[in-house]
Amino acid sequence: MDLFQNISPDSAFTLALVCALLCGAVILLVMGLQIISGVLDIIGGILGLGLDILGGGPLSWCGCLLLFVGLFACGGLVMLLAQALSTCGTAQAVNLCLIFGR
Fold first, then answer.
1. Exposed site from 6, 39, 85, 100, fewest CB < 10 Å?
2. DSSP per-residue codes, the chain
């Protein structure tokens, strides 16, 4: 007895299309789970590092705090310098423009 004798070409095409779509969906699902796992692993690592620093006592995070304060101070200094140099060539020009030759 032939199992496929009552299948029309249209239903065979539909069956093949459904199987192909299911296969594609499974591949996308597996790749999506890998991506989600990687992102969660990165977030967990960052949170774990932060908790290790905070849980290590005052000496372990003191250097990090000084680093962040230094970075913010340098950023603020650069912003002030950029603001002062943007006044060069205007009526509000400051003496800093003379140092940089503007």
1. 6
2. --TTTT--HHHHHHHHHHHHHHHHHHHHHHHHHHHHHHHHHHHHHHHHHHHHHHHT-HHHHHHHHHHHHHHHHHHHHHHHHHHHHTTTTSTT--THHHHTT-
Q: Which residue has the higher pLDDT, 5 or 20?
A: 20
For 11, the token pair is 């239903």
Residue carrying the six token digits 């230094």: 70
Reading the block at residue 21, the tokens are 């779509």
Among candidate residues 80, 81, 85, the one with its CA nearest the CA of residue 98: 85
Angle between helices 58-85 and 9-55 (to 10 degrees): 100
What is the tens place of the pLDDT at every residue in 46-85?
898 878 777 776 677 777 788 899 999 999 999 998 888 8
**Cα–Cα dist 87/79, whole Å:** 13
Which is it for the CA torsion 91, 92, 96, 97, positive or negative?
negative
